[in-house]
UniProtKB/TrEMBL annotation:
Domain of life: Eukaryota
Species per Swiss-Prot/TrEMBL record: Dekkera bruxellensis
Sections of the chain in a coiled coil: none
Gene name of the encoded protein: RIO1
Protein name: Serine/threonine-protein kinase RIO1
Biased composition (Acidic residues): 445-455
One of the GO biological process terms: ribosome biogenesis
């Protein structure tokens, strides 16, 4: 039996994940905002301004047609769209804050057009209010009164800047190569929503508990609503009232196993995994908010994975006070192919039961295990590379001083070395993208987007930076030779200039 017993821990400062830091900054800013009656009516006025059709032509200048269309949509659906706080259960957001965010950042005329598509295609019949106003999106509760189904609608904010620093998640993934839309926030959020939709699909089809993705219209994503009683949303892991320490340990193990399944079966690293992005629903641990998740080929995937492991370990050890597995051993557990894990050579099933057995072999560490903690600290600071050639001097020094077990600890494992990032490895994924593009009508995108341009760009391979050094040298040499050959038959610049001038003279 694994000992997940209590530890006499000091209440050390919790390490805040990257994304959460931003979120917390925002929450602090919001919390310092005192909502007076005066300000509330200001918000209400703002809402009325958006809903008032007579003002729309001022606000949106030349897009009169779109505005009239939006006015129609509002006339048709105003009674079906409630932007108040969702009153189905307990919520953390004040009415004032959610309305303000809604009016300012989410329900613009364009978004209303996409919502109207969801009403028209019969996915939903009503939007009942706002569940959450997050940093990058607002989540609304919706329902279909015919089927009785409930949905969560995540609407990405198009007018915020947080997406600017998201470039690093999208950049470096073959699925999104060529989508050079970082400078256009509207296209960026669309890519973002699409990424979340696809990632949710992968999770769901691999049997990892996650909300089922239902529909996607540009930056508006519809998914299954996770709720215990049809009221408020099921609690996030952070707020879940654990029955006892055994239940805490159970959820910890499940989450570690899910991280492996996500990596091995879905080929995804969550990249923002924490107690905030996991929901306990029907006694299962659901993973969501996967818009920033990346594939293992992504140049920062291993760094994101290390961060996820740390976040998960921090929550369970510091907040829930159980013994956890050493971070570097979890890392290995997640990325090692089965053949390496099982000396018998037999390839066991990638399922919960087998993985739990495997996990139980890993020794737990106590919070004051100096040696293990030191090793984890070194592991966190290592510059992981895919081959010994990329090894940094500083890390090699650590190895020489005995701070690293083996040299291979510094080198990301075989699974990474064998990845060929210059071509889509996952043919199924490539097909999925083609299908998606085929099935997505241009009206599902921005009406004013340069999609053709984007599609053209997406054909151009852009992943040269992942090339092996040797390969890069060969490519450069070949390019040089090609240019040399071209120069042999190339017309001299001055001759060309003279000819062009001549032909101009003839024309005139
Ligand atoms: N499918 C769902 N069912 C029930 N509740 C959900 C669902 N999806 C999201 N939520 C609720 O909405 C909140 C925000 O969702 P999500 O994390 O996806 O958005 P976000 O913009 O990333 O927010 P944050 O910045 O707070 O992380 C969640 O914490 C959860 O409470
Ligand atoms: Mg979130």
């Amino acid at each position: 039996m694994v000992n997940f017993g209590f530890n006499a821990q000091t209440t050390a400062q919790k390490q805040i994940p990257l994304k959460k830091q931003n979120l917390d900054t925002m929450t602090d800013a919001n919390e310092s905002y005192e909502s007076s009656d005066e300000e509330f009516s200001e918000t209400e006025n703002a809402l009325n301004t958006v809903l008032d059709t007579s003002n729309r032509s001022h606000a949106y200048g030349n897009h009169t047609q779109n505005i009239h269309e939006s006015a129609d949509i509002l006339d048709r659906y105003a009674d079906k769209i409630n932007v108040d706080q969702y009153l189905g259960g307990s919520h953390r957001i004040t009415r004032d804050r959610s309305e303000r965010a809604t009016v300012d950042q989410v329900l613009d005329p364009r978004t209303l057009r996409f919502l109207s598509k969801l009403f028209k295609n019969g996915t939903i019949t009503k939007i009942n209010g706002c569940i959450s106003t997050g940093k990058e999106a607002n989540v609304y509760h919706a329902e279909n009164s015919t089927t009785g189904k409930q949905y969560a609608i995540k609407i990405y904010k198009t007018s915020i800047l947080v997406f600017k620093d998201r470039e690093r998640y999208v950049d470096g993934e073959f699925r999104f190569r060529g989508t050079k839309n970082q400078s256009n926030p509207r296209k960026m959020v669309r890519t973002w929503a699409e990424k979340e939709f696809r990632n949710l699909k992968r999770l769901h089809s691999s049997g990892i508990p996650s909300p089922e993705p239902v529909d996607l219209k540009s930056h508006v994503l519809v998914m299954e609503y996770l709720s215990e009683d049809g009221g408020g949303p099921s609690p996030r892991l952070k707020d879940y009232p654990f029955a006892d320490i055994d239940e805490v340990a159970e959820f910890y193990q499940r989450l570690v196993v899910d991280m492996r399944l996500m990596f091995q079966k879905c080929r995804l690293v969550h990249a923002d995994l924490s107690e905030y992005n996991t929901i306990v629903h029907d006694k299962e641990l659901y993973i969501f908010d996967v818009s920033q998740s990346v594939e293992p080929e992504h140049p920062m995937a291993m760094d994101f994975l290390r961060m996820d492991i740390k976040n998960v370990n921090d929550f369970f050890s510091r907040v829930k006070k159980i013994n956890v597995y050493p971070e570097r051993l979890i890392f290995k557990f997640i990325i090692d192919p089965w053949s390496q894990m099982d000396p018998s050579g037999e390839v066991p099933k990638e399922d919960n039961k087998h993985l739990r057995k495997q996990l139980n072999e890993i020794p737990l560490k106590t919070v004051d295990d100096v040696e293990q903690n030191q090793k984890d600290e070194v592991f966190r600071s290592l510059h992981l590379v895919t081959s010994l050639r990329g090894l940094e001097e500083r890390d090699f020094k650590r190895f020489s001083e005995g701070h690293v077990d083996t040299l291979t600890d510094l080198v990301a494992p075989d699974v990474l070395r064998t990845l060929d990032c210059t071509v889509p490895r996952d043919q199924e994924e490539a097909r999925e993208i083609q299908d998606y593009d085929k099935n997505t009508t241009s009206s599902d995108y921005d009406s004013d987007s340069c999609d053709n341009e984007e599609k053209e760009e997406s054909k151009i391979p852009k992943l040269k930076r992942f090339e092996d050094k040797e390969e890069k040298r060969r490519r450069k040499k070949a390019a040089k030779e090609k240019n040399r050959e071209r120069r042999k038959t190339k017309m001299n610049k001055n001759v060309k200039k003279r000819l062009v001038k001549k032909s101009h003279r003839h024309k005139s």
